[in-house]
Design goal:
The protein is of the alpha/beta class and 391 residues long. The protein has 2 domains: 237 residues, Aspartate Aminotransferase, domain 2 (3-Layer(aba) Sandwich), CATH 3.40.640.10; 123 residues, Aspartate Aminotransferase, domain 1 (Alpha-Beta Complex). 35% of the residues lie in helices and 15% in strands. The chain is built from 9 helices and 14 strands. It has a 7-stranded mixed sheet with strand order 1-9-8-7-4-2-3, with helices on both faces. The chain has a 3-stranded antiparallel sheet with strand order 12-13-14. The protein has a two-stranded antiparallel ribbon with strand order 5-6. Strand 10 and strand 11 form a beta hairpin.
Length: 391
């Protein structure tokens, strides 16, 4: 048994949670001093800040001018649910899933909306569905980046430009870190607390002209709660896409998002954000290549996430354990990392295979990922030593 000494260097910031994610480098409460607190979000000041959040989002992400962007309730989940409840049912639906959140959208389509024509195309953790099996003349619901599996769509090549259905894309752990082909996506959703490290409870809903046309020409058979309604009297509620939110937003969270967007612009926009995430992933790729006991959960390099990096233990001695014992071992590794204060919230998602999940989005410094790698080896060997003593 190899006994490793504790590494000398620790990450300056041990926050590797996959959501809420680490704040931007240099963040402090001082960044929120200009928040419109104690004021109506419908006052001129509040509306101007909300409108700026939308405008800056469009600018940094490169969202086409004819796409609508709205701030909606309930984080990314609320944005996806709003899209599904408002748009689905006009035609058959293909729901794609390769991790827990995608599986959740399948459940909503089948058991909650009870749509009569749903095809569930699913792949196990680590893999992705075969997009050649997807019928894009139907509506298609999918995650771009599987936050709980570390598997992402490599590109939009499989999505035809002349599709008849709508593509509804949950992009919450992809936006600001990966290229999103808006011409292939009719609905894009994300939340503030992922790649830019913003605060929770607010979602972003991006609609293509095709999605807007569906809203104006199709009325779902079910009643829509007020927070899901995007139309009134057969017309789009345009105010939603100008900062006139459906319900009251937290202006403190809005200020924090504006700060994150400003940081993104200062460092070079989307190109710089993607580069930061890619550099972080590259650190882990080198570590995995040098250590045979660990590997990416994603089975193909081209579908490997550069944000929610999911890792699995591949040591034959660990793989031979029962499922419960593997889960306990992974929990021990993550627990030791947290106890040492070098990686917080680094365990795999509760529904995912046992392992680690290390957030590598743009707000994480590459130097911190580099400092963490020796600690992964130390924690693994320590947990394995404990396992051997208990045998």
């Amino acid at each position: 048994m190899i006994i490793l000494a504790k590494p000398d260097v620790r990450p300056a910031n041990p926050q590797f949670s996959s959501g809420p994610c680490a704040k931007r480098p240099g963040w402090s409460l001082e960044a929120l001093k200009d928040a419109a607190l104690g004021r109506s979000h419908r006052a001129k000041l509040g509306k101007s800040k909300l409108a700026k959040a939308i405008d800056d989002t469009r600018d940094i992400l490169g969202v086409p001018a004819d796409y609508r962007i709205g701030i909606v309730p309930a984080s990314d989940t609320g944005a996806v649910e709003m899209a599904m409840w408002s748009l689905l049912g006009e035609r058959g639906v293909d729901c794609l899933a390769w991790e827990s959140f995608g599986s959740g959208w399948v459940t909503d389509a089948v058991k909650q909306l009870k749509l009569p024509d749903v095809r569930a195309l699913e792949a196990p953790y680590g893999e992705i569905v075969d997009f050649s099996d997807v019928d894009f003349d139907r509506d298609v619901v999918f995650t771009w980046n599987g936050t709980t599996s570390g598997v992402r769509v490599p590109n939009g090549d499989a999505i035809p430009a002349d599709r008849k259905g709508l593509t509804i894309c949950d992009a919450t752990s992809a936006a600001f870190a990966q290229d999103l082909p808006y011409d292939k996506l009719d609905v894009v959703t994300f939340s503030w607390q992922k790649v830019l490290g913003g605060e929770a409870a607010h979602g972003m809903l991006i609609l293509s002209p095709r999605a807007v046309e569906r809203l104006l020409t199709y009325k779902p058979a079910w009643p829509l709660p007020k927070i899901f309604r995007l139309t009134s009297g057969g017309k789009l509620i345009e105010g939603i896409f100008k900062g006139e939110t459906i319900n009251t937003p937290s202006m403190l969270c809005v200020e924090d998002y504006l700060d994150a967007l400003n940081w993104a612009k200062e460092i070079g926009g989307l190109v710089a954000l993607k580069a930061r995430a890619d550099r972080n992933l590259a650190v882990i790729e080198r570590f995995v290549a040098e250590n045979s006991w660990i590997d990416f959960l994603a089975t193909r390099a081209e579908t490997r996430s550069n944000t929610s990096v999911c890792l699995a233990f591949t040591d034959p001695a660990i793989v031979a354990l029962s499922a419960d014992a593997q889960a306990a071992f992974a929990k021990d590794v993550a627990g030791l990392l947290e106890k040492e204060g070098v990686a917080l919230d680094s365990g795999a998602y509760r529904d995912a295979p046992p392992g680690l999940r290390i957030w590598c989005g743009a707000t994480v410094e590459t130097s911190d990922v580099e400092a963490l790698m020796p600690w992964l080896a130390y924690a693994y060997e320590a947990a394995k030593t404990t396992l051997a003593k208990a045998a």
